[in-house]
Input
Amino acid sequence: MEKKHFFIFFGILAALGVYAYVDSRLYGRANNSTVSQNFVINEGEGVNFIAQKLENSGLISNKIWIEVYLWLKNREDNIVAGTYELRPNMPIPEIVDILTSGKGKKEDQTVTIIEGWSNKQIGEYLAEKGVFSKEDFLNETALIEKYRPYFSFLEGLLQGETLEGYLFPDTYNVVKGKTTAEQLAYRMLLNFDKKMTDTLREDVKKNGHSLRDIIIMASIIEKEVSNEEDRKIVSGIFWGRLKQKQPLQSCATISYILGVRKKQYSFEDTRVDSPYNTYIKKGLPPGPIGNPGLSAIKAALYPQTSDYVYFLSDSETGKTYYSRTLDEHNQKKLEHGL
Output
């Protein structure tokens, strides 16, 4: 009996020891600092990713304990995206309570990045909104080596390129004066990564073009035509020109160079000396001319074959006119003032 009592006693002590250890891990603090910091949870981020970010930020000592606590409380799916003020001296249950209730969520605003906007346009817009300066955004989006290890789709970018083309246009939550250019750039890249599904990536491989080429073409299509069906047809025309070793002759690239959009560009405009001038330079330009949305990316990836050789886009009406011959094309130019 004494031996049996000993094992029971020892088992209770062991259980209490485990309980005490787990309790100390859950209710212990990363450190005693009372200095708060902004912690951002983006839409679509998983528990493991968030836990790792908390550890990397010094808000918890080990990510495994917050994962365990979320699992024990069955709250893994209750985390609310947003920006929070957290402190390293907070125990894990308090952090979880804040992140799953949203009650510590800071007051934020939304910014809407328009499809096709260049990095410069995005930077100017964010500066107008008071989020951060245009210079901060442009400097951050030039740091491709900083982000390349985290996003495989950046592997094909060349030295000297920026993140232009891969900052997915969408509506984002920001905190004025708090959200940094780094945080927003990361969220936009993460959004691009999510939108590029496994199917799309596989189809890029089958397509015969690199993802980089697809994004460059998509950025041009985005600015040329707005209708989804037109985009597929124009994509077929542009890829056909490249195959025939002809210049793309895209007005969108002239707009990118000049920084102004016109209904009709002059002959002198199309002679401007720039590697992005697709009237005088054959092949794709050296990089995207904006950040395309999913519709334009799909159009670049899935072009529609037609017997059209030329097209005209009316930016005021959104109408696109197609031609099979140069004479027909020139006639439509006169007819529609394009």
